[in-house]
Specification:
EC 2.7.7.65, about 45% helix, 19 helices, 6-stranded mixed β-sheet, transferase, 5-stranded antiparallel β-sheet
Length: about 675
């Protein structure tokens, strides 16, 4: 061989050029091989050279005479590929048999191995570049997603799906598609790549069977890879033969199908097609799987954001609701009154912008609801509803159901409820799409119903219903508080009345006399008139009380008190001091001369017989009086003078008829009559 080389039997320069060509760059494998093979062919000894696939025999590149070369001695050397495989062969057609010799053949064998290593390096570099592109694409997709979420505040699924498919297609995949189940089919929702529209029209099912990589991936929930999708049983059936030819013409070869899992469930399928003859490395499959996982996580995040947004909206709605409730609806009734409270509740519910109408009603004796307060759309026309709790024909109203059941009832498709057909026109006119009614309890029993309506369906969720129950509870509490305060006020008024009145007879007592006598004296001086103060006790009362008992004596005192009150003017005052002692205060008289007539009126009233059970009682009285300002003393002194006059009147025993005496300070004598006044 050395002699041949030295004698220029072989052009050594060609061989060196071939070695140098192994390190040159070219756009693709075919151009690279054509450049290298062209160096090997010298036209004399080597007539042609080509590289073919080891399995199929398909020619990848050739140089020299057209194939096949007639009359040539064809020699073959294996060309190593990536990862130790030998997928190709170097074929060379020599002009003469026995050329090259053993030494040169070994050289060509080493050269073929070097060619394989060069091809492997190129394949490795191609995969490296694609991996880098995939990494960059996923990073760019993450940045896009973050930027989109920042701008939009919540991710929108469709832009994300489109961006993902476009990103993967930009790496060099002829088709990238996302499919989601729709019935028994997997339908595309996003597609990219040159062959994307064609692949998107290919029908795929969700049922088990394992005849296609997408179906296997969907059925098993694991990644499925096909090195040549067009040769799978699914596309080899006669019905899909045209699709196989179209996919092959579009340059579609292998396929990787990865399920997209969202919150533990199958959401869709990521299908990535490779070019014809271009395999997928384990690293590339891993990155495609990572893209599917990224999509699943992004969709989970999107769902969580939507959930948070709904929760935030419910929180905002609850805040508005409770703000409306706390804005004054629960104020004590003593500050606003019962009707005012109910109107305030209705107005605040409507002002929350969640409800379009609110009303409070309760059925009357006829079972028909009476509306105590209302606000919002349709509030002025509520009487048209004619809701009753007794008539079965209209018993389907929410207010009727709430009244009968004692529970909150609601309807999120209010207008679609056939039980509400009698009010269909009203509901449509005022847009009552959803509604609820909750009973209001007062004193532990159902007193009325609070009803609300909203212009949107599905408003009555758990938060809203809980709020309405709370509002009804607060309204009931406010009404109970009002009832309690009314009872307390009545009790306070009664206690105040008892402080100045006698509970047995209803007349004023000594405390009332102590308050009113000084005022009466002041009025007398101011008006220039006189007043008379009479102190009387009943004659023979003790005997009646002993004979008829305390109940009979109390009844006698009550009748006497009523007759004394009837015998005086409205401006006069009758007081019971205790026992059978009474005080009469006459105001606006001209002087002592008016007393005989005033006392006579008392005698006429009291002197009538009193029937107590089966007994008929005749009673009389003795009276002592004094007159102001003829007796120009203060109240206590006047009362003592009247008492002294009464003592003198009672001392005159043995004479019939009322006995009374008038105190006379100036003369020191007692004036009056011993007989009938």
């Amino acid at each position: 061989m050395a002699k041949d080389l030295a004698g220029e039997t072989w052009p050594w320069e060609h061989l060196l050029a071939a070695w140098r060509a192994l390190g040159e760059e070219a756009a693709d494998e075919a151009a690279f091989l054509a450049r290298v093979l062209a160096v090997l062919v010298d036209g004399r000894r080597v007539r042609a050279a080509w590289v073919e696939a080891a399995g199929s025999g398909g020619v990848m590149a050739a140089a020299g005479e057209p194939l096949p070369v007639a009359g040539a001695d064809v020699r073959s050397w294996p060309v190593g590929g990536p990862e130790g495989a030998t997928p190709w062969r170097l074929q060379m057609a020599f002009a003469e048999a026995g050329v090259p010799d053993a030494g040169l053949a070994g050289f060509y064998g080493e050269w073929a191995q070097a060619l394989g290593r060069a091809l492997a390096r190129r394949e490795h570099e191609r995969r490296r570049r694609r991996l880098e592109a995939l990494y960059a694409a996923l990073a760019a997709l993450g940045e896009w997603f973050a930027d989109h979420c920042e701008r939009c505040r919540a991710p929108v699924p469709h832009p994300l799906l489109d961006q993902l498919t476009r990103t993967l297609a930009g790496v060099g995949f002829p088709s990238v598609s996302l499919r989601v189940p729709q019935g028994a089919r997997l339908v595309p929702v996003a597609t990219a790549g040159a062959a994307g529209p064609l692949v998107a029209r290919l029908p795929l099912g969700t049922g088990p069977g394992g005849c296609s990589a997408p179906v296997r991936a969907w059925s098993t929930g694991a990644t499925a890879v096909s090195s040549d999708w067009t040769q799978e049983p699914l596309l080899r059936c006669p019905a899909l033969a045209p699709w196989r030819d179209r996919l092959a013409a579009a340059g579609v070869g292998g396929l990787i199908a990865v399920p997209v899992i969202v919150e533990g469930e199958h959401w869709g399928l990521l299908c990535v097609c490779t070019g014809e003859g271009a395999g997928l490395s384990a690293e590339e499959i891993t990155l495609v799987e990572r893209a599917a996982r990224f999509l699943g996580l992004a969709l989970e995040w999107a769902r969580s954001q939507e959930t948070l947004a709904r929760a935030h909206e419910r929180t905002r709605r609850a805040e508005r609701l409770y703000r409306a409730m706390l804005h004054g609806s629960a104020l004590p009734l003593r500050r606003q009154g019962e009707r005012a409270l109910l109107r305030r509740i209705c107005r605040d519910l409507v002002s929350s912008r969640i409800f379009t109408a609110a009303w409070v009603g309760r059925p009357g004796e006829d079972g028909r609801f009476r509306y105590l307060a209302a606000a919002g759309a349709g509030s002025q026309a509520l009487q048209q509803l004619r809701i009753t709790v007794r008539d079965e024909a209209t018993g389907g109203a929410l207010a009727s159901r709430a009244w009968r059941s004692g529970r909150i009832v609601y309807n999120n498709r209010h207008r679609a409820d056939p039980a509400l057909a009698p009010w269909a026109d009203f509901l449509a006119r005022y847009r009552w799409e959803s509604a609820a009614a909750v009973p209001i309890r007062r004193g532990g029993i159902i007193w009325g119903v609070l009803a609300v309506a909203a212009a949107r369906p599905d408003v009555m969720d758990r938060t809203t219903l809980s709020f309405l129950s709370r509002v009804a509870e607060l309204a009931g509490n406010a009404l109970d508080q009002a009832d309690l305060e009314a009872r307390l006020n009545r009790e306070l008024e009664h206690q105040a009345w008892l402080a100045t009145h006698d509970p047995l007879t209803g007349l004023g007592n000594r405390a009332l006399l102590s308050q009113e006598l000084p005022r009466a004296l002041a009025r007398s001086l101011r008006q220039g008139t006189s007043l008379a103060l009479g102190l009387l006790d009943l004659d023979g009362f003790k005997a009646v009380n002993d004979r008829l008992g305390h109940a009979g004596g109390d009844r006698l005192l009550q009748v006497v008190a009523q007759r004394l009150q009837a015998a005086v003017r409205a401006s006069d005052l009758v007081v019971r001091l205790g026992g059978d002692e009474f005080v009469v205060l006459w105001e606006g008289i001209t002087g002592p001369d008016d007393l005989p007539e005033l006392v006579a009126r008392l005698e006429t009233g009291v002197g009538q017989p009193v029937v107590i059970g089966a007994d008929r009682v005749q009673i009389g009285f003795s009276l002592g009086a004094t007159c102001f300002p003829a007796d120009p003393e203060d109240g206590d002194a006047l009362l003592r003078h009247a008492d002294w006059a009464l003592y003198r009147a009672k001392a005159a025993k043995g004479r019939l008829g009322p006995r009374w005496r008038l105190y006379g300070r100036d003369t020191g004598t007692w004036e009056g009559e011993a007989g009938k006044a």
